Amino acid sequence: MKTSYLNVRLFMAAMFMTLISVFTSCEEDYKLELPLAVAQNELTLGAGGGSTHVLVYSTGDWTATLKNPADAAWATIDMGSGSGNGEFIFSFTKNPGIPRKAVVVLTTGSDTKEIAMEQSGFVTAAEMVFMKKSFRMPGWEAASAVAFDTNLGLALDRITSKVEYGDFDTAEGADNSAVETTPATADNPGWLTGVVVEEDSVRFNVAANSDGMPRKARITLSARNTVSGRTYTTSTIVVQDADGGYIRFNAPDQVAEVESFAKTVSFLWDTNMEMFFNRMNVDVVYDEPGEEWITGFVMTPQGLQANILESHYDGERHASINVSYNGSEGSVTAVRSVLQVRPALEVSFSDLRARLASAGTVNLERDYIMAQVISEPGNPNLETNPHTAWNQCDLTESARTAYVQSIDGAYGLRVKLADIADMSALPRYATVKIALAGLTLEREDTPARYTLRGFSASNILEMTEGTVSSLPAKERHIGQLTDNDIYTFVTFKDMEVSLRYGSWGNLHNGYPHVSDLISVGDKSTHRADCMPRFFRDINGDVIPMLVNAETPWRCEGVHVPKGSGTVKAIVVYAPLDRQKANGEMGDYQIRVLSREDINLHATQGFSTVIAEWQWNSSADIKKGTDSESKVYANTGTGVMDTDCPLTGTKTALTGGFFNLTFATKNLTNAFRYCGPWWNFTDKKGYSISWTFSTEGLSGSNLAMMMTCASGLQAVPVPTYWHIEYSTDGTKFTMLKKNLIIYPCPVWAYEKGDCPAGNAEYIIDLPDSLFGQKSVTVRMRAASAKMTTKDGLAKGTVKATTAKVNDQYMRFDAITIKYNK
């Protein structure tokens, strides 16, 4: 053993000379009280073992002994006695564990001095853990072991054990600090004895339980750092049943049915045999000849896990799993009968849809579909986020939605995820094999559409990544759509934005909740999450595009393109409650997931503008000298006019809702007429008209598009308006009766049946109006019904209503165009 001489010895030599000087200068005798070879009372020793010489100075006989020899078996003292000046040798073994301390007692006569010898360890902090916090055992007499892990494998002698009996709570995280316990003693050890700590397990013995009821014991292991005083502990609770060993499969009289594809299953049971799992046997008896299709058994306290192999057998197959234990303590057997259903078959989308002939649901139990994913995980524009209150939306609905279509693109399904975290299991354009077992198929009618609910990542049996080119080409004009196209990916041909101003979603940006994207959103509410934008194709058919508030390309800082092109989108059916009173949401809507899927020419399109009114500033309000009410078109030739006796500001620029950026609630300007809109004397409404010429023009799909709002909610402006046309300015033909003109967005409007922006109106005009020298289209107040806080048209305009003679009718833009 290597000898280590401490510097303290030199210090003590110097101290000794100083003491001699003191003694020779004193006249009276001085009694030296055990001058030791240390100025401090403790020495630090290395973990590697060795020895050290400790100088002792005394005027008499002295001895050096260990204070508690039983606790310091790792230390010895040589030359442990002497007279006068001397030394003793302290030897110590290597310490593979945590720090430890021995105390040396120096004695001379009746005087004593203690020196702490503190040895560091190769382990700084002890780690000890039972792999089970509690477990059950049969009522047998048995030797058992529980798995254990520690970093004190080379210092197990530092670990002590304690057994206590009491009514402990075995629930996860239970606090047993207040439980009344009875500790095991040498005289009364109780029923759990012989605890032996090993590096990977703790062994012990239990006596047979004759108490007639379950009983519990807690084994606590401790390791103490005698230098710092810290004690490390871990414990486990042993529950010994009154009964012998048992394994009881759930529903033992029923056959456990498993799918035909490969998967891991768990046959649930109740058992107290956990401590005997490593000595139990599992055998399988197969009724049909062939492969062993149940393998890889793992026993857990909850059940027997097994791997089921995919079946290629033409029909069902059967097996019996036999679990047994035979030992000196007793024996246990249990049987689980298993039926593997016929091999999973691919179900076509049409056959799957045929399982529901009308609206309803059906729980699916087997088989699979092959599909292509057309949605994108995490895209904010997948689904309409529903209102949970008039001023709140559930913003998670879009995130838990996906769409898949058949490989040929003929049919589609909406998929609702059980957990948003599983969205990544359906990457866009991937081809997936989806197990139907455990899913619910839902059909909704008018139009007929289908949803798979309860999807999780475990339903994906196979997945092959793809690109947009993996999808089948599916081109349509709007009028070609049928219910079969719902939830499929379609390329729409010859499309234009109906009204060629504003953003992709002209939502009042104060209505959504504030976010990193929408800085001007509301801090406490979320009144609306979507505003439709209408597309019109070369055939004059119209379809709404739904764009959620958080869609990053909704506002691009510029007006939408004025030309035509293609739009790639998922066909959906999700009419918005805030804008459906006129039936404008139609039979179908579309959701575009990427700005790149809208491919429109900046200026060139299939339609031609006859007359257009749009106001960016007061200078754009082109008024004549002959009338205060006449406003001339900014593009083309036309006159906008009203027969309403204007009041107040009469005509003026006002705030519009063509929001081009996310940073403002309304960026663009609009035009307004100000006046009364109901004639109480004649009991009829006033009108607003647009006059233009189609002389020399021929073509198709003549139409007028506009955004319009009737003042504000709860103000005296009529709700219903007739749309009429004339070629002579006097005799008018009804085109659309009782069109609802929605009010401007109002914060406090609680009914949720008005748009969160100025609504778009698309009015098709008859082909007979081509070739006319003059055409007038007008909107005329149809009744005195007005919108109030109680809902659309729930009130009546009255002559006594406040400010009835000074109300706005506002327009963001009006376009009259046709196809050549």
Which helices and strands appear, and what pairs or packs with what?
Blueprint: E1 3-5, H1 8-25, E2 42-45, E3 50-56, E4 61-66, E5 75-78, E6 81-83, E7 86-92, E8 100-108, E9 111-119, E10 128-130, E11 134-137, E12 142-150, E13 159-165, E14 182-183, E15 192-197, E16 201-206, E17 215-224, E18 231-240, E19 247-249, E20 256-258, E21 263-271, E22 281-286, E23 294-299, E24 303-308, E25 317-326, E26 331-340, H2 349-353, E27 360-363, E28 368-373, E29 387-389, E30 392-393, E31 401-405, E32 412-417, E33 431-435, E34 440-444, E35 449-455, E36 460-464, E37 475-476, E38 489-497, E39 530-537, E40 542-548, E41 565-572, E42 589-591, E43 598-600, E44 607-614, E45 622-623, E46 631-632, E47 635-636, E48 639-642, E49 651-655, E50 669-675, E51 678-679, E52 684-685, E53 687-692, E54 700-709, E55 720-726, E56 733-740, E57 759-764, E58 775-781, E59 785-788, E60 791-796, E61 807-819
Parallel strand pairs: 1-3, 2-9, 11-18, 20-26, 32-35, 37-38
Antiparallel strand pairs: 3-7, 4-6, 4-8, 5-7, 8-9, 10-12, 12-16, 13-14, 13-17, 15-16, 17-18, 19-21, 21-24, 22-25, 23-24, 25-26, 27-34, 28-31, 28-33, 29-30, 31-32, 33-36, 34-35, 38-39, 38-41, 39-40, 41-42, 41-43, 44-47, 44-61, 45-46, 46-48, 48-53, 49-50, 50-61, 51-52, 53-58, 54-57, 54-61, 55-56, ...
